[in-house]
């Protein structure tokens, strides 16, 4: 069994309580009972609504927040292991950098602190954006600060890159260029990249795994081909047809939009939208269809955007972790949740 780059089992994180007032119940479970595995070499998109816990998860994997329960391992070793420090690069959402330093001084610091430092890789990001080395960090624009953070992460040549909304404030050209560099780096080194984003179009072009968080819980996770192949978007023409119904026995209650019954061979309705000829239903195929590749299934697999939006609009739809991202343990070698 190859150890995953990141594996969580029953991971919960509790935050808050900073006021320290007796009797104050101001602590919040920002991650709840999360279980997933991110294989080595994956490019994993981390998505979810505002406040879902994406930043909390990235900071926890980076070792900056301690789990309150459960286990979290990087390359098979508990998070926080001293050896992890050199192997991971983390870019926080607030791009915390020393504002008084010059860009050059920060690069020197990167070189002095990291034995595998790659100056050219870092400088390439800065040169492409024409960021002068003599500039003071505090005087850089928001997008340039992001590029500087990504340049430092790139220079570190890490085995695991954790990037919190790395593209949010970059112009379209900088997005493409920087993403291209990062993807080429991780492919060359077999490194693992986890990046959060709200821009699904950006992710669609780059990721091969997806982790959808909502209210601190994993709603959906999997290798992208597995996730998409396990779902079908049926339109109004396909729904009433007897033949389609036989291939996909979406029963009357479900096709009317009732929540997933969770029983038998019936595909799970994730979301039913519209009415009459404009109606479309996203279903998740039963495990047997999923296992057989669902070659005869009616309807079309959804796009990443259709899939994510359907799950976000229907917080009551049951979550799912595809086999490729289920945590593996000695007690559950097929994966927890299989
Ligand atoms: N230091 C903290 N103390 C208490 N609660 C916190 C703290 N930091 C974050 N939270 C809470 O944790 C939850 C998850 O926040 P987090 O920043 O991880 O969400 P997110 O998915 O990254 O959101 P966004 O997409 O808006 O960046 C939120 O309810 C937030 O208020």
UniProtKB/TrEMBL annotation:
<dbReference type="Pfam" id="PF00005">
    <property type="entry name" value="ABC_tran"/>
</dbReference>
<feature type="region of interest" description="Disordered">
    <location>
        <begin position="255"/>
        <end position="274"/>
    </location>
</feature>
<dbReference type="InterPro" id="IPR051782">
    <property type="entry name" value="ABC_Transporter_VariousFunc"/>
</dbReference>
<keyword id="KW-0547">Nucleotide-binding</keyword>
<protein>
    <submittedName>
        <fullName>ABC transporter ATP-binding protein</fullName>
    </submittedName>
</protein>
<keyword id="KW-0067">ATP-binding</keyword>
<dbReference type="GO" id="GO:0005524">
    <property type="term" value="F:ATP binding"/>
</dbReference>
<dbReference type="InterPro" id="IPR003439">
    <property type="entry name" value="ABC_transporter-like_ATP-bd"/>
</dbReference>
<dbReference type="InterPro" id="IPR003593">
    <property type="entry name" value="AAA+_ATPase"/>
</dbReference>
<feature type="domain" description="ABC transporter">
    <location>
        <begin position="6"/>
        <end position="240"/>
    </location>
</feature>
<dbReference type="GO" id="GO:0016887">
    <property type="term" value="F:ATP hydrolysis activity"/>
</dbReference>
<dbReference type="InterPro" id="IPR027417">
    <property type="entry name" value="P-loop_NTPase"/>
</dbReference>
<keyword id="KW-0813">Transport</keyword>
């Amino acid at each position: 069994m190859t150890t995953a780059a990141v594996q969580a089992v029953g991971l919960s994180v509790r935050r808050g309580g900073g006021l320290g007032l007796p009797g104050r119940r101001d602590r919040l479970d920002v991650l709840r009972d999360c279980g997933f595995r991110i294989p080595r070499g994956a490019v994993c998109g981390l998505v979810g609504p505002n406040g879902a816990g994406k930043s909390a998860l990235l900071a926890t994997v980076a070792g900056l927040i301690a789990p309150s329960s459960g286990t979290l391992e990087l390359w098979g070793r508990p998070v926080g292991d001293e050896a992890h420090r050199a192997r991971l690069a983390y870019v926080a959402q607030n791009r915390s950098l020393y504002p008084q330093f010059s860009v050059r001084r920060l690069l020197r610091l990167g070189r002095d602190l990291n034995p595998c430092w790659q100056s050219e890789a870092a400088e390439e990001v800065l040169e492409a954006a024409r960021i002068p080395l003599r500039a003071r960090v505090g005087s850089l624009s928001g997008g340039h600060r992001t590029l500087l953070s990504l340049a430092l992460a790139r220079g570190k040549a890490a085995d695991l890159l954790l990037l919190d909304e790395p593209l949010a404030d970059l112009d379209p050209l900088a997005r493409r260029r920087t993403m291209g560099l990062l993807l080429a780096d991780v492919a060359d080194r077999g490194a693992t990249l986890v990046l959060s984003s709200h821009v699904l179009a950006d992710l669609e072009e780059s990721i091969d795994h997806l982790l959808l968080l909502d209210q601190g819980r994993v709603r959906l996770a999997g290798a992208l081909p597995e996730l998409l192949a396990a779902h079908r978007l049926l339109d109004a023409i396909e729904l009433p047809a007897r033949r389609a119904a036989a291939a996909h026995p979406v029963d009357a209650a479900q096709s009317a939009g009732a929540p997933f019954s969770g029983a038998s061979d019936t595909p799970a309705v994730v979301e039913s939208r519209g009415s009459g000829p404009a109606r479309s239903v996203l279903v998740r195929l039963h495990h047997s269809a999923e296992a057989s590749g669902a070659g005869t299934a009616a309807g079309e697999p959804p796009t990443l955007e259709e899939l994510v939006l359907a799950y976000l609009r229907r917080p009551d739809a049951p979550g799912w972790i595809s086999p490729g991202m289920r945590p593996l343990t000695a007690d559950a070698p097929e994966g927890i949740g299989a």
